[in-house]
Request: fold
Amino acid sequence: MSESMPAVSTSASDGAVTDAGPKKFGTFAGVYVPTLLTILGVIMYLRQGWVIGNAGLLGGTLIVLLAFGITAATGLAMSSITTNIRIGAGGAYSIISQSLGLEVGGSVGIPLYLAQALAITLYIFGFREGWLFVFPDHPALLIDLLIFAVIFGVAYKSAAFAFRIQYVILGIIILSLLSIAGAAATGSMQYGLGELELWGTFPGTPEGGFDGTSFWIVFAVFFPAATGIMAGANMSGDLENPRMSIPIGTMGAIVTSLIIYVLVGIWLAASATPEELASNYTIMIDLAFWGPAVLAGLLGATFSSALASMVGAPRILQALGDHNVLPQGKWLSVRSADGEPRNAMYITAAIVFLGLMLRDLNAIAPLITMFFLITYMMINVVVFFEQTLGLVSFRPLFRIPRVVSFLGMVGCLFAMFIVNPAFSLIALTLVLGAYVFMARRTLNAPFGDVRSGMFVSIAEWAAKRVWDLPTMQERAWKPNLMVAVRTTEDLRGAFLFIQDLVYPRGSVKLVGVHPANGSKKIDETLDSLANDFRARGVFANWIAIESDDFNQGLVAGIQTARGAFPRPNTVFLQMPEEIVEKLNYSQIVDKAAEEGLASLLYAPHPKAGLGRRQFVNIWVRDRTPDWGISMDIGNLDLSLLLGYKLRQNWNASLRFIMVVEDEAQHQNARDFVEELLTLARIPTTEIIIAGGTFSEFLTEAPQGDLNIFGMLSEPNLEFIRQVRDKTKASCIFVRDSGNESALA
Reply:
């Protein structure tokens, strides 16, 4: 498992370089070489022989092709997205952030940084093992500290100097491959095709006593060799032409390394027996024409991987700091005059040093692999989403079929759980936890993302499906209020009550009606109120209609509800403090009924308000002599549904009150209400059946914080005011649309 060197950003900020900064690199130096060196790593030198010895030539080749297939799909997706955006510092973090937002980018970027920093320690340990193969008496800790000092010194000087060092390492690796080719040319391939073991017996490992293994376990051991393909994307800020260099350089390195792995596998299978390959991890050194060249290649591979991560990890940290994803972000984002993130390097060096002092990171090595795989998976997710949304902003110069990003996404997830299911769950949990932490903060990105487009596309898809369904959707009913706004002062007083009516799944559409000279003020107020609703977890939007006649303006607003999504199902009106002659609520209620909307008229008590929100009285009209219950229960559905919503959101108690003048019908009335509550699944509720007249009992009824009544076909504002005053509590009067059902 290897990783690459993210870009040295050249944007100006706190000590950052400008156009006169570091030299730009081309395709070969900036992408092809670092990507190739990250893939041709320690697994090729020490584990490919073991893979062939266990799986056989065909089985081992299948493992190589499967691993590189997943990597190639990710490489293609990454190449495509980098030709569509101006990728900044941080490589994968920048790609993900620019598409799915800083919260998602940060939740992946932080674990990616830690994984890359800790990977440096693993690579140093690997270098030490190769060194001790030659000098077994040298102290291990001293070797670790010395090689760490060299790697840090090279990275600290500059990325350009590190690139020059990698040319030397490339030469060493080429020499090791020539030594292998020399062995093949001089007769090491002693077994013919008929003698080769095409499918292995999977004997296992020497340290495990050869107690057996499986195809997928062998795949899990080999798979990290195919990772480490982010070199091109991470170096985009230092490339002369990233849109050309990243696709060509990345895919060129993947194809080259794939060919090398397949040819080395064939050479190993034809040069040694399966038993020798499975039991001897240094078989390549023993079989090579000149063994020291292969050993040098092993040392060069581990050194190169450690150096790449030492250069790359601080740049991820610097990018996280630049966007204030981490505390002390400004300090972390500071770069030197030559563009090096020195402060981020110090933090990275401290993490590596602590890792070295632990002396063994094998316990968390699988977690590091998981973080890399999650990053690759998210690259594919980004491209798949962008392709699926069909936004005009996604027009990459390098296009790939959607199936490629999908297979890359599924392949990375598959590889995670094949390599280590337990650590896969841990890694996903940590990333999710980081996202929750990020989502709670206010992160301001200097770029746009596609999240809004993604949710809009989902909403459009849902709207199209809803439009094809029958209009009667009683079981899917939820309160979607169209709130008529005559004066913004009235709405402020009803704000919390409206929230309680719709929370958590309902919605609010504010419809403001204003004369021509008041448009700007009401627009600002409506926008502020909608934002306040959304901040409290209630979806809200608004429209403003210019009209000198409130009735006509609101009727126009009701008519526009036909094409809205989500479509309002209830018009919320508020009782004015003073009777306004020209305010014709009957016209509005009738128009709402024509459009299939219910109506709700709120009459707040000027002194009591909503009291302690402990009791809700639902008033039911006398049904004498018809006490039968069917699916049509009259104008009661909305009263029951709203009463139940308020019971939940207020944690209140419900009372059902019915005034029945004929005392002989009281038991029938009680039976009716009890059956109604049972069918409506309303929890334990107090039932009051009273005698006398409705008007008389209004003043005698138990005090409620809110009373719910059915609305007359033509609402009389003076009568409504009298009812409110007699109950000494706020009231709402409702008229069903016929699309609600408390019994559904």
